[in-house]
Amino acid sequence: MLIKNQLAALVKDAIIAAQNSGALPAFAIPDVYIERPQRKELGDYSCSLPLKLARAAKRAPLEIAQAIAAHFPRAEAIAQVEGAPPGFVNITLNDAWIARQVETILAQGARYGDVEPARRDALRIQVEYVSANPTGPLHIGGGRNGALGDTLANVLNAAGHNVQREFYINDNGTQVRLFGESIFARYAQALGRDESFPEKGYQGAYVIEMGKQIAREHNEKFLRIPRAQAVRELGRLGIAIVLDNYAKTLARMGVRFDNWFSERSLHESGLFAQVFQILQDKGLTAEKDGATWFAAQELGEDKDAVLIRSPQVIAEPDERPTYLASDVAYVWNKLVVRNFDRAIYIWGADHHGDVPRVLAATRALGLDPARAIIILHQFVNLKRGGELIKMSKRAGEFVTMDELLDEVGADAVRFMLIAQHANTTMDFDLELAKKQSDENPVFYVQYAHARISSILKKAIESGALSDPSTLLRASGGDVALLTHPAELDLIREILRLPEIVELVAAKLEPHHLPHYAISLAGIFHAFYKQCRVVSSDPADAAITRARLKLVAAAQNALARTLNLIGVRAPETM
Questions:
Q1: Which residues are 162's β-sheet partners?
Q2: Residue 51 maps to a domain
Q3: Rounded to the nearest 5°, which phi and psi values hold at 461?
Q4: Are 556 and 519 in contact (CB under 8 A)?
Q5: How many domains does the chain have?
Q6: Could you list the pLDDT tens digit for every one of the 573 residues in the chain?
Q7: Can you give the CATH number for the domain in which 45 is found?
């Protein structure tokens, strides 16, 4: 159990003890929340519950806080508890207990930071991310989506949940036909045929290259079959090529998926027809202007939305269902057919208008909309030296993720793309991402990890450490010697990692991880300046061994944090 959760239980026990003694009157005890105070001198943890109990207890908040402090149970982890104005219970941990946690951290190894929920709280969660239209190269918006989704999936796993990672393939409807027509035109042109390009087709050098590639591999195969058939087959072939490139690009970022789900399958399997019938039976569909609408206003939404377009507007039957139609079937597939407890969608902010309609459709299907969670992320501006980058000379249209990875590397991309809240428009500075200095946050954190590797190597070379595995044994060093304020500050910061994992899993906000990594690296660097780890003086042998344990624990926490972010923890820099 996290120390803050243990403290919450002790606060509740203290209130009960105060009530039993008559120091506090009887009242129902609400949930207890423990926080970290903003100022170090206020202790390690704080509880503001007395401020909320004033009316129920008919006492001043400070009086309640002091009563709780006076009845606080004894615990080896706690050095001091006090009631403080205007009504806080401030808790300071015992330095000796803090030092002993180094052994626990080392013993947990690569799993340090994991948070095991109560069995009843462990969920089957699907995280769906990237899901970019497979009609062109992946750009930085898709990269941010991938970094957010993959990191969030990592953390949810670390928090004890069963997580599936999914890419939703938009491979149905008008876009596929337009993509097929665009490829057909470039393919025919590559074979020397005079073929006009569709007015609303997909422009870009990548379509020209795709047409040439298909011409080389298939010769005139698609010119010998009916044009409509060729367009359909080329659209699907083009999507397969794009998806293969997506998988390769995302793999370079360390982004992976357990499942690639086809939108087309929702319609071909008959699932959409099944779900449509449910809406129809509930009177939540309406015919208007030749189209079929979802009667969202019946559920309190501002306006209805089209599910199936009119045949007078769209001639091809398989192109008439809208994105919303697929979304309605897809949420049913997630929450009913595959029975996930939670379905987390990560979408670009340009889809914000779709959110209320999808949640309304979830309610219309008789499902709890709280099971469908949609996270929106804002756009990313690429900059170089303060100048906004709008075009890529090589691609001719936009900077692709492959170009970005080639220039700055996967570590900088992953770290920096989740370093700000998803709902914040961010500037990605290419020059900063390439700097090998403290200005570059990912370099700063990775350097701390590499510095510890150097310390441990030096310890082995000097004979201060015969075998790193001895650090896992009590005989490898006495952590009770870790009493310097810089040592204790470092341990306190290492102990925050499980809390950060719990926070990210609860709030679905991955940006807390890089912030924590930067803080931990900074506190380690401060410790390193104040406390010599490996000393050649035989009189310092005992403190050297204790500090080697501490730096190994710090390295463990840094590596785990970087691993959750999807960034390497290098041994050398």
A1: 124
A2: yes
A3: -65, -35
A4: no
A5: 2
A6: 689 999 999 999 999 999 999 999 999 999 999 999 989 999 999 999 999 999 999 999 999 999 999 999 999 999 999 999 999 999 999 999 999 999 999 999 999 999 986 666 789 999 999 999 999 899 999 999 999 999 999 999 999 999 999 999 999 988 889 999 999 999 999 999 999 999 889 988 899 999 999 999 999 999 999 999 999 999 999 999 999 999 999 999 999 999 999 999 999 999 999 999 999 999 999 999 999 999 999 998 889 999 999 998 888 888 899 999 999 999 999 999 999 999 999 999 999 999 999 999 999 999 999 999 999 999 999 998 888 887 543 334 678 999 999 999 999 999 999 999 999 999 999 999 999 999 999 999 999 999 999 999 999 988 888 877 777 776 678 999 999 999 999 999 999 999 999 999 999 999 999 999 999 999 999 999 999 999 988 899 999 999 999 999 999 999 999 999 999 999 998
A7: 3.30.1360.70
Residue 446 lies in a domain: yes
The residue whose two tokens read 């990672």 is 165
Q: Tokens in use for 442? A: 């990912």
445 Cβ contact list (under 8 Å, min separation 6): 415, 514, 517, 518, 520, 521, 558, 561, 562, 567
Strands 342-348 and 372-377 come out as parallel
In a domain, 345, yes or no: no
**If 0-12 CB within 10 Å is exposed, 13-18 middle and 19+ buried, where does residue 511 land?**
buried
Q: Is 131 left (phi over 0), alpha (psi -120 to 50) or beta?
A: left
Asked whether 272 and 325 are in contact (CB, 8 A), the reply is: yes
CA distance to 293, 296, 343, per residue, from 299 (Å): 13, 5, 21
- Tell me the pTM: 0.94
Domain boundary residue among 93, 121, 143? 93
Structural tokens at position 23: 């120091």
Q: Which residues pair with 381 in a beta bridge?
A: 427
**CATH number of residue 515's parent domain:** 1.10.730.10
Has residue 485 been placed in a domain?
yes
Question: How distant, in Å, are the alpha carbons of 84, 239, 241, 349, 483 from that of 136?
Answer: 60, 9, 10, 19, 58
Rg (CA), the chain: 29
For strand 387-388 and strand 285-288, is the pairing parallel, antiparallel, or unpaired?
unpaired
Domain extent, residue 29, equals 3-93
Beta strand 342-348 pairing with 124-128: parallel
Final residue belonging to a domain, choices 57, 72, 93: 93
Give, as one character, the DSSP assignment of residue 85: T
CA angle (57, 64, 88) in 5-degree steps: 130
